[in-house]
Amino acid sequence: MVDGSFFQEITEQSRLKTSIVTKYFSTWANIMIKAREKIGKKRIGYFDLFCGPGIYEDGTKSSPLLVLEKAVADPDLREHLVTTFMDENQESVNRLSQEVTKIENIRLLKHSPVIEVGTTDEDLAQHFAKLKMIPTLLFLDPWGYKGLSLSLIHSVLKDWGSECIFFFNYRRVNAALDNPKFEKLVHAIFGEQRAIALQRAIKPLNPEEREFAIMKALDEALTKEFPNFVLTFKFRNEPGTRTSHYLVFVTKDRKGYDIMKDIMAKLSLRKGQSIPSFQFGGPQGPEQTNLFESGESLEQLRTMLLEKLAGQTRSMQDIFEQTSVGTKYIKKNYKEVLLQLEHEGRVVTEPPKHERRSGTLADHVKITFPPA
Fold first, then answer.
1. How big is the CA angle at 341 (ends 340 and 345), to the nearest 5 degrees?
2. Residue 115 — φ and ψ, nearest 5°?
3. How far from the centroid of its chain's Cα atoms is residue 260's Cα?
4. Which CATH number fits domain 12-280: 3.40.50.1820, 3.40.50.150, 3.20.20.70, 1.25.40.10?
5. Could you tell me which CATH class the domain 298-368 is placed in?
6. N or C: which end of the chain has fewer CB atoms below 10 A?
7. SS3 of 39, please?
8. Do β-strands 243-251 and 229-236 pair in parallel, antiparallel, or remain unpaired?
């Protein structure tokens, strides 16, 4: 249940989270509809299972209304988008229903939004698991973490084109790992055996090490048994002293991973930065050196490329695709490092720099690395 103050006034954290979700939805939906056209089908889905009232008391709209407004404005989405909004709170469902009716031209949607009271639990996960789902973007934004489970995420991701964005309340999960009363909920998130091992492993750790271990366990839970890509965006508390939560994205598709990475990167870059932080609040620059902030630098990227690709010839695009997953590096960082290596004569390019526009490195350019 959401307390009464949560939707009074939007915070910068909530604004950013909503921006990430709605920006990705727009791109994902357009790609899915075009892909579905090729097989004579176009229906796609957007499911928000902790939808809330859709609006803050200060009048700021949250993701349910913003998604529906995007759908109304787009002829393809008007025709093919199926939406479901669910919440345990009857008042939130009633308020969202009222706000949806106020959207201009909402009746143009071929598929009216389904807005209902319901509980996100194991029964729902089992229901989805039995269905052949249309491509669906699943958004899970629980107030705490009740209802968040691996089984629910995988019940949707099992089908082609489906992806998930979820809110991971790190502060509350971190506390729950030490409390036997929340054992069942913790097992649902990490898997029983992994959760038990994690609880043992984190006992002697300091806060930074503990956070690293918890997020590593979550990544493993989402990827070890399934061929998924995972991205996380960290949010710190108001003073920037500790982590409050993460926004987590899960997909089976490399293209989706790169699109979301680009969105998150642009929303976390600050003036003077080259490598995005993928976080809101707290230290934002290259001075980040604690355990969980990877401490990635252009120098480290340079060393990694020279070592990993020694003696090989690869296109710029191939290099990026083969080595960027799991890092904070974006394509701009790769081009900056490779152009510097070219300038130093450490790599050979085809076509060479005198045949290209100054300072450019297109995706098709071949780069030959020196032997080890």
1. 115
2. -125, 115
3. 6
4. 3.40.50.150
5. mainly alpha
6. C
7. coil
8. antiparallel
Helix (H/G/I), strand (E/B), else coil: 315 = strand
Q: Which amino acid is at 134?
A: I
Strand blocks (E) in 169-292: 229-236, 243-251, 279-280
Largest CA-CA distance found in the chain, in angstroms, rounded: 67
Rounded to whole angstroms, the Cα distance separating 73 from 237 reads 35
- Interatomic CA distance for residues 243 and 218, integer angstroms: 15
Looking at residue 29, its amino acid is A
Parts of the chain belonging to CATH 3.40.50.150: 12-280
Point out the residues of the chain with pLDDT beneath 50. Answer: 1-6, 284-293
Mean of the per-residue pLDDT values for the chain? 92
Note the pTM of the prediction, 2 decimals.
0.92
Q: What is the pLDDT of residue 39?
A: 87
| Cis before 370? omega within 30 | no
- Please give the Cα distance from 45 to 32 (Å, whole number): 10
DSSP annotation of 137? E
Contact, 322 vs 314, CB < 8 A? yes
For 25-48, write each residue's pLDDT tens digit: 999 999 999 999 888 888 999 999
pLDDT tens, residue by residue, 263-314 = 999 999 877 788 999 999 865 444 343 334 456 899 999 999 999 999 999 9
Domain with CATH 1.10.10.10 in the chain: 298-368
In SS3 terms, 119-156 reads as CCCHHHHHHHHHCCCCCEEEEECCCCCCCCCHHHHHHH
Are 22 and 67 in contact by the 8 Å Cβ rule? The answer is: yes
3-state secondary structure (DSSP) of residue 202: coil
- In the numeric block, the tokens 């698991």 are attached to 129
- Amino acid 283: pLDDT: 56
CA quadruple 29, 31, 32, 34: dihedral, nearest 10: 120
